[in-house]
């Protein structure tokens, strides 16, 4: 049975890394002492070692060990026997390129579908969707495909942002961008505001956190969904 | 000799379509009565016909005729004999996909390099750079390549946006995104604020409009460049 936590962000405003979700992570990873961390999204160009240290410090607060996937000689083998995986945020194009380059996408998908626990934030959340095409990131590298894990039957837009009132900027709002996505793509999109996450138990997907999510379905007006509700997309 | 106007946006806040730049366009297209419009970026999913009408109404104010490239049976032939081209904004991934699909990229590049006048806004400005990789748009479609026209020896970031003071959003600022681009790419990036444009005459490139541009070079601190100055990237 699939077990995932798909979180909009690692960090909410004026809080420390993972603080808002640590007690839920403690329950989620109840029987897992060691988590493999995928650092490949490299936010701000941070090294894999330095990024892994941040994840280690975060999870140390709930007594979990974290090992960087880049430290294994054979990352595919490491994932084959992993008990739990956490993928951090950064640049989604870079993350997806690296996952394909190291042949990680298929084994990660296989393990998630057979019940290995998976936690992802931001880019690491985005890749649980059908495709990475509702990322907010810059295309800094050309990935071999936009197809991602498909652990949920829709796309994720992390860091979902409401239009800024009184803005004089003429660039598209997030909602307009997702509307453009739906001009040529059919899958629903879940806009996860910072501090929100999806809890996946098999085919049941529940919204958690303090804020509602914004749901986009092709040909419908976007609508809000409150925390605690089950998604039926 | 290359002749281009590379503009951040078609429309500035509280102004009508192209209004801020019409008198400059009138001088730029002094001897050209007819302009071919490339509507393929389809902002908000607008039809090619409807988008072309907007461009026609804009240019009618300075007595220029506009014909949509999509109305020609053979768009490559149409570009071969075009006197001037305008590419409008929308989604850059869609625009670049369409330009490759219809084999337009090579002929457009050839004609620009042999002196055909080119005006581009937003996505239409982005594609004059070396690659489309500093677009702000969502990857709603997978293009065959990120390589673009290379009419200027750098990349363009249209709608350049300064960090929003007091924002509680944890998503990356534009500057952070471009810094991530430079972790794995070497070409400079010109951040064009709305209302700014580059005037290209052969190898001379001058910044125009009311605002400074923000210049990003790999391994350097970003810096501001005032309007009226010549770029030496």
UniProtKB/TrEMBL annotation, chains A, B:
EC number(s) stated in the UniProt entry for this protein: 3.4.13.21
Similarity comment: Belongs to the peptidase S51 family.
GO molecular function terms listed in the Swiss-Prot or TrEMBL record: dipeptidase activity
The keyword Protein transport is assigned to this record: no
Organism listed in the record: Galbibacter pacificus
Xref: NCBIfam families: PRK05282.1
Superkingdom of the organism of origin: Bacteria
Protein's name according to its UniProt entry: Dipeptidase PepE
Keyword line: Dipeptidase, Hydrolase, Protease, Serine protease
Gene: pepE
């Amino acid at each position: 049975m699939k077990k995932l936590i798909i979180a909009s962000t690692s960090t909410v405003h004026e809080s420390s890394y993972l603080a808002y979700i640590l007690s839920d992570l403690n329950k989620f990873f109840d029987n897992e002492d060691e988590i493999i961390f995928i650092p490949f999204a490299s936010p701000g160009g941070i090294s894999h070692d330095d990024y892994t240290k941040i994840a280690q410090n975060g999870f140390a607060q709930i007594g979990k060990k974290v090992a960087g996937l880049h430290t294994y000689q054979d990352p595919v083998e490491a994932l084959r026997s992993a008990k739990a995986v956490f993928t951090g945020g950064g640049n989604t194009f870079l993350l997806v390129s690296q996952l394909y380059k190291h042949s990680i996408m298929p084994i990660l998908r296989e393990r998630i579908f057979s019940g290995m626990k998976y936690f992802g934030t931001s880019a690491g959340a985005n890749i649980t969707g059908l495709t990475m095409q509702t990322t907010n990131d810059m295309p800094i590298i050309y990935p071999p495909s936009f197809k991602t894990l498909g652990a949920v039957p829709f796309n994720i837009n992390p860091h979902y942002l409401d239009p800024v009132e009184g803005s004089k900027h003429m660039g598209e709002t997030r909602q307009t961008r997702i509307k453009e996505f739906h001009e040529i793509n059919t899958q629903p999109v879940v806009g996860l505001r910072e501090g929100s996450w999806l809890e996946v138990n098999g085919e049941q997907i529940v919204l958690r956190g303090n804020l509602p999510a914004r749901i986009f379905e092709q040909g419908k007006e976007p609508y809000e969904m409150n925390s605690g509700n089950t998604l039926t997309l």
